[in-house]
Amino acid sequence: MQSAIDMMPAKLPAAGMKKRRSTSWITLAAALIALIALLPLAFIVWVAIQTGWDTVVALILRPRVGELLVNTVLLVAVTVPIAIVLSVALAWLTERSDLPGNRWWSWLSVAPLAIPAFVHSYAWISFVPGLHGLWAGVLVSVIAYFPFLYLPIAAALRRLDPALEDAAAALGLDPWRVFARVVLPQLRLAVCGGSLLVGLHLLAEYGLYVFIRFDTFTTAIVDQFQSTFNGPAANMLAAVLVVCCLFLLALEVMVRGEERYARVGSGAARQQQRARLGRATLPCLLLPAGVALLSLGVPFVTVGRWLLAGGTDVWRWDEIGLALGQTLFLAIAGAVLATLAAMPMAWISIRAPGPLQRLLESCNYIVGALPGVVIALALVTITVRVALPLYQTLFTILFGYALMFLPRALISLRASIAQAPVELERAASSLGRSPVKALWSTTIRLSAPGAAAGMAMVALGITNELTATQMLAPNGTRTLAMAFWSYSGEIDYASAAPYALIMVAMSLPMTWWLYVQSKRMAGR
Q1: What's the protein's topology in the membrane (predicted)?
Q2: Among 370, 377, 372, 384, which Cα is nearest to 225's?
């Protein structure tokens, strides 16, 4: 008995050494991935240094850059406030009022996410051929992107404790003042987060604005690259676009503030009583019905009209099958690669939190805020100058997808790993398994559903991605988005319609999953 007891202290330090060694290797892998994720941002800075200060100033201070900056600022400054007002109104009607069919209107307010933004624009330009310019861009942008605001605002409204509103009403405040002074301040986080998503999408979008002939930094970068392959000029436009993205990130942090939004103390939140609309029911129904008609009716009617006009001839099954197969392959391969790359960072964010972890994690989120065209331009220039054999290869495009959609996989993995008890890893290690085998047999298996959800979100993004795919794809690649863009660019809208329909059909299940998850977060 004594010999057995004496042996135990000798084994525990060895197990601890293995654990620390495993953690150090995972941290090293996470650090390497974080550094790689910053590659596009670092490359733009390096190109600016190599180009020279005088040339950089000349390229940035051109009148054309000023025009693009004015267009971009106006687009964001007008679109985001309209989307906020629309989303708050829809969320209140569907979550806080007795609007008839509120559950259906709630789902219909999320469903536009299933339609790629460039398909929205294709539908509207087919419906109204003269739709061009800033206000056309604002209209289509609000219709395409307001669900990014509606989802978090509706989820926040479901979670609010009505006791605060009851207390404000008891003090003599009318319903409008209660909403303005009690409810709206508690929606700040949701509004700031959703506005940031919408703003970043506005900066990154390409196809939507090409259809309506509205120039932004993204359209100018792609045009510069495709027409003249002018690396310095395109990279300086990309640098200005990156500054705009970082400015949005900083603005969101300042507006969000550091206030607490959770209740402290005993008690339990009760269910909010829905407001009675009464005579205002019919007028209030016009808002969700009108939004659904504009965001869903116009695209589906337009696609259906072009399908009927084209008949069976537009269903070129050999081309469609090839595009569908290539899209699925790139989506699955890119999703697997992004998920694998996110695993080390997700693991240390839960198992070894600290200043280094927060720094590494922020690197991954910064690259997620960069437009796809910036990442693609950086990879194109790097492969052309340094690694020409990798130019327009499968490796490069999958690498680009992994960089672009790494945050999507990271968020899902982090949430699922947090639900896997660390004690199971320790128990597996105490039974003699190596740290890697213990990690695989416990945490990795338990986090499989979250990994699958993250892969689905990445695959959805890859399916609808256009600009980076055009710039990085190997010769002969023709995804659903590329085929749609090719036919629509030739004004052959009938031939483009089947590809639009298939992309929407592939995106709808993922959109439904996002809607269900938002309900679960609020305990519904």
Answers
A1: Multi-pass membrane protein
A2: 377
